[in-house]
């Protein structure tokens, strides 16, 4: 049965759509949503709905029984998630602090509910480093923080070199006051006065659309500025490919997917000099950082960037590589999905009862066509690799304990290394062979070696060994049917006389059977200590 997630937030937003789509695609989650229905224009009614919403959310929880709740914005839906009573909660800080605007009368209230949301959450998303700075300052338990952007679909946003001999700029941010489109237009007004050729594409809609159109006319650049209005997301990659410069001048920023999309599409970024952009852009190295509302500086940097063609070309190559390594939707959403499953496993563990059967019962009830014998977890190469893994785990673990500053890839690595510290089997939960496995033989069902093996396993269990130690399996058998599908496996430890098919399934054999099995494996080529 699929695990179910209740998403609290504005489900129509592109950012939320990416989040939910990734969880379905890489985590096989079922997603249900809840959001405020009153528009922002009816402020009093919306506030009233917000205060009554915990009742509505609890109703949907009782009806749908979600396994966990995820919520955007720590000061709104994140707080509602904290009040929900859910056992597993993940919240996302959308902006640099989520306390914007700082001059608001509600600022103290927002700080209070954010702190409560941080405390109740099992996992807190920082889509970028700038968000983690605020969390650390606020006193958040950083063990709960995952610093990782959702990423973008690199199969959609692909690079295409633009060799145009003029500035072909694009702006893809919402037409709202905080994105300072008027400053961008005024900077291009300066370029027009200098008789520098350009085209400017402004994508999207918003409350400032008509004001900006009128401003373009006043600046006498209306023939060089294209207002696309709202467009389908499918059209955006092509518009980015047709452009050579991307401009974004917000006064506050968390993590901008728009910036990643531009960087992936070979658009040279010119953005406002604020912490949210400083995390990704270094001035005149892989982009330009512009002081907010400094129209003259923006105009000058536009000219400088276009004239420095070689630097721009080097930057767009580096930017594409950076996005591939740090903001790949396929990679990052798989990490996030796995983290959710890990949280759910921890908070609601499925207790699987151990099962026991005799070796005779095991082999006589097994229908198979042939077997393969394996040796694993032995040999010089394995021991050297194992030692390296132990040292790597110890270093990462000590760093996590002392500094708690591991990035998401290091967190993923320490999780992988932690698994290696537990009992290893010839097959993992997904049916994959152990990395150290070496096949020694293949025997058909009617082979005399199989007959000998069955005879050993059919020895009556009179004296069952009871060693007080944990097994380390080094020898194994895999059983296959006619379709070459695995039907079972048997892991054997000769150090403490244990046999298991899987983690929770034990096979009991007589003490004498282990001596005969050891002889059997040595005869077919196993180097048993």
Unreliably modeled segments: none
The largest sheet has its strands arranged as 13-19-18-17-16-14-15
Q: Can you name the CATH architecture of the largest domain? A: 3-Layer(aba) Sandwich
In the residues, how many domains can be counted?
3
Subunit organisation of the chains? single chain
Helix content: 40-55%
Structure description:
- The protein is elongated.
- It contains 18 helices and 19 strands.
- The chain has a 7-stranded mixed β-sheet. A 6-stranded parallel β-sheet has the order 2-1-3-4-5-6, sandwiched between helices. Strands 9-8-7-10-11-12 form a 6-stranded parallel β-sheet, with helices on both faces.
- The chain folds into 3 domains: 4-147, Glycogen Phosphorylase B (Rossmann fold), CATH 3.40.50.2000; 167-326, Glycogen Phosphorylase B (Rossmann fold, 3-Layer(aba) Sandwich), CATH 3.40.50.2000; 355-377 and 424-523.
- α3 (73-83) packs across α4.
- By secondary structure, the chain is an alpha/beta fold.
- β7, α6 and β8 (198-203) form a beta-alpha-beta unit.
- The model has no long low-confidence stretch (mean pLDDT 92).
- The longest helix has 23 residues, at 380-402.
- The protein has helices at 14-27, 43-64, 73-83, 107-120, 129-138, 181-193, 209-218, 236-241, 257-264, 275-278, 295-307, 309-326, 329-347, 359-364, 380-402, 408-419, 448-457, 511-523; strands at 4-8, 30-34, 68-72, 89-93, 123-126, 145-147, 167-171, 198-203, 225-229, 245-248, 268-272, 288-290, 355-358, 370-375, 438-444, 475-480, 486-493, 498-502, 505-508.
